[in-house]
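We modelled the chain as a single entity of 67 amino acids. Its sequence is:
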Amino acid sequence: MNEETIKRCAYCGKEKPVSEMFQHTIIGRGNHWDINRNRNVACTVEFTSWYCKGTSCAGNDQMAHEG
């Protein structure tokens, strides 16, 4: 049997086979607890997700994470 894995797009939520998807790294803003300052401080975060091929899903998600 040739069963292809199904992934969900991180932006639009559509489920598609892996052959119609690609992985992209998003860089955005986040925060973490700084124990020395005893408060949250801003930082940069990176994470990789699956997106639809041939669409602007990855670019739109990147813009959504820019602050």
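As a brief sanity check on the tokenised model: Helices lie at 57-65. Residues 6-65 form one domain.
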